[in-house]
Design brief:
Length: about 650
């Protein structure tokens, strides 16, 4: 057992977070129960007050009819079985769970979602969601503010964000929007629209900056508006006929032999949703180019060099992805350097969109944001931590406002239920290119007013029908905990501090186990994911080390055949692939672990390592003076000794 912690004096404790979650023990059960009962009753009153003159359609005596009772008992039986089965669920809420990107749920969001469910709004359009569709658009603006995008709908270039089922679909939306924006100037040229200043050839039309494409789109809309209705319809149809959305990739590129399918550039650490995205869009995986990393972060020099060569070869680029919080190692790509590389490339005639995949790390931006929306300098942020934020981490977050679009997952570091990702673009005007017409759902001309326009949400998003309850959860959470360092930011702060404590404890563990098991944090964490590489002392073979880690991980993961309580802790694994790490880093890590690099030569071989997501807010339990991090390492040391001895 760990000794009690040396706790900071009581006044520094943060009691505002005490009401945030149901809690590991269900401490806030009465709070949640009160909220649920109150709002369920409220919903029933709403039904009764709709047309109180309508008599009840279900007889008051119905509840004693045998058929009613039989139905009720069947329902109860199934629900009891479900409830019993769910006890085998993963205990995400527990500070003993440090596996994947999930934790406890924020009460304001959980309550808002449960409260909204019986109203069942469908955010496809305002006809089916008069209230929650606005909340979704507002949630997009809240996220835009957190990221440093323009977020005042009165501004013509205001950002726009909407929710998706998750980061995967948000990333897909980024690809769709970038392609629409890139190909549109080419369509204007093909339709030979007069009076507009169009690029002189297809290559330059395909390489306008996102801002220049948006400006051209605006000019086209103004030009169109000035025409008489029949001529306007004719011109619209002519341009429409040339658009990539109309012609398809095959037709569009056949019509423009000067152009080739554009590539998507992403670091090799990028999430597999990018592979799904290029397949879905029809670009194919051949056009997803994975760039090398340096210490698991996108190598900006390699990117610059690649862009230079692509510009010379006239190979277009659709989008460059920077990852803000890698799924496997939590590393932060140098967003600022990607933007710089684009500046250079722009001067060489090669332009593209910059998208930040912040599905994991997006909410970390709250730590960098003041209440007035301005950016906190690095020294101010750093006062709360031992190492965080590294200069490149601060620079990456500071640069977010200059990117074109961002993916953020409220269902990850937003602590909200699944089914909640978000796509945010810097300038909403580009969205007009994604608009779909379905007259039975959307009617009338596109309103000029920002909020009114996006009430036809379904026109712009990849999905159709979608839950308004999710939007309510995200919006209410951001209202209760505004997305700045003094409010929401307290949560990521706790997790970043936990990650620093974890990292320090890992080094101590390495000393304690010297001569028994090599323990190594393969690279200093940028955020709140920390990995551990392990190898029993004396072993030189990578496959043996991997088998050792796999045996350990079998103890650290869910097993439906065993009672949950048998498990002490939950962790996850990932692998160190030489193709991702590069030769020098692979060599450094293998040497430190006492492994022989020659044993890697199997092609498929890679080294399995433990991965820990430190997002639970109660990892350090101040109430009882317990550190679950210390307890985890005590447990780990015991198991490592036993597994090493059993070899
Ligand atoms: C989780 C994640 C995704 C995918 O998001 P889902 O919500 O699982 O669809 C994409 N990119 C990154 C960096 C992620 O961490």
């Amino acid at each position: 057992m760990s000794a009690a912690l040396d706790l900071p004096p009581e006044p520094s404790r943060d009691h505002t977070l005490d009401a945030c979650f149901l809690g590991p023990y269900g401490e806030n059960d009465t709070l949640l129960e009160k909220l649920l009962v109150e709002f369920l009753r409220d919903h029933v009153y709403w039904r009764r007050n709709f047309h109180p003159e309508d008599p009840p359609a279900i007889a008051t005596s119905a509840a004693s009819h045998p058929d009613y009772l039989a139905f009720e008992s069947r329902m109860r039986r199934e629900l009891h079985q479900l409830s019993a089965a769910l006890k085998k669920s993963v205990p995400f809420h527990s500070p003993r769970y440090i596996g994947h990107m999930a934790s406890d749920l924020l009460l304001p969001g959980l309550a808002a979602q449960m409260l909204t469910l019986p109203y069942n709004p469908n955010n496809v359009s305002e006809d089916a969601a008069p209230v929650t569709v606005d909340l979704e658009v507002q949630a997009g603006l809240q996220l835009a503010r957190m990221l440093g995008y323009p977020h005042d709908p009165a501004r013509p270039d205001c950002a726009f964000g909407h929710l998706t089922s998750g980061g995967t679909v948000a990333n897909y939306q980024a690809l769709r929007l970038a392609l629409a924006l890139k190909a549109f100037p080419v369509a204007l040229r093909a339709a030979q629209v007069p009076d507009l200043v169009l690029p002189e050839d297809d290559w330059s039309a395909f390489n306008l900056s996102p801002a220049a494409s948006i400006a051209l789109l605006e000019q086209w809309q103004h030009w169109l508006a000035a025409l008489a209705p029949p001529v306007r319809a004719q011109w619209r149809a002519w341009v429409e006929a040339e658009r990539i959305e109309q012609r398809g990739l095959a037709g569009f590129f056949a019509a423009h032999p000067q152009l080739r399918l554009p590539r998507v550039l992403a670091p090799i650490t990028a999430h597999y949703s990018w592979s799904k995205g290029v397949k879905l869009l029809g670009l194919g995986r051949d056009n997803l180019e994975l760039l090398p990393t340096r210490d698991m972060r996108l190598d900006a020099d390699a990117l610059a060099e690649r862009l230079h060569r692509l510009a010379r070869a006239r190979e277009p680029v659709l989008l460059c992805v920077a990852v803000l919080g890698g799924t496997e190692y939590g590393t932060i790509d140098p967003v600022h350097e990607v933007l710089k590389a684009r500046e250079v490339s722009r001067a060489q005639g090669l332009d593209f969109a910059v998208h930040v995949d912040a599905a994991w790390g997006g909410y970390l931006a709250t730590v960098f944001r003041r209440e007035d929306g301005s950016l906190r300098p690095r020294e101010e942020v750093a006062a709360d931590y031992t190492h965080f934020p590294a200069p490149h981490v601060h620079a990456a977050f500071a640069a977010l406002g200059d990117t074109d679009s961002v993916t953020v997952d409220p269902h990850k570091l937003g602590y909200l239920p699944y089914g909640s990702g978000a796509f945010v673009c810097r300038d909403h005007r580009a969205m007009a290119l994604l608009a779909e017409r379905a007259d039975y759902v959307f009617h009338g001309a596109t309103p000029a007013d920002y909020l009114a326009r996006y009430r036809s949400l379904g026109q712009y998003i990849p999905e159709g029908s979608k839950p308004g309850a999710t939007a309510a959860a995200v919006y209410v959470t951001h209202k209760v905990l505004p997305l700045d360092h003094a409010h929401f930011g307290r949560l990521p702060r706790a997790t970043l501090q936990a990650a620093e404590a974890f990292h320090a404890r890992a080094r101590q563990c390495a000393d304690e186990l010297a001569g028994c098991v090599h323990v190594l944090v393969p690279f200093a964490p940028d955020s709140n994911l920390v990995c551990l590489a392990l190898n029993p002392h004396g072993n030189r073979d990578v496959a043996t080390a991997t088998a050792f880690v796999r045996a350990l991980h079998d103890e650290l993961r869910c097993d439906v055949h065993q009672p949950l309580q048998v498990k002490e802790f939950f962790g996850s694994v990932t692998s160190l692939r030489p193709d991702v790490l590069g030769q020098a880093q692979t060599r450094r890590i293998l040497d430190a672990l006492g492994l022989d690099a020659h044993t890697l030569d199997g092609g498929e071989d890679h080294l399995l390592i433990l991965r820990h997501t430190l997002m639970n807010p109660y990892l350090i339990d101040h109430e009882n003076g317990i550190s679950y991090i210390d307890r985890y390492f005590d447990h780990l040391a015991r198991r490592l000794r036993a597994l090493a001895a059993a070899r």
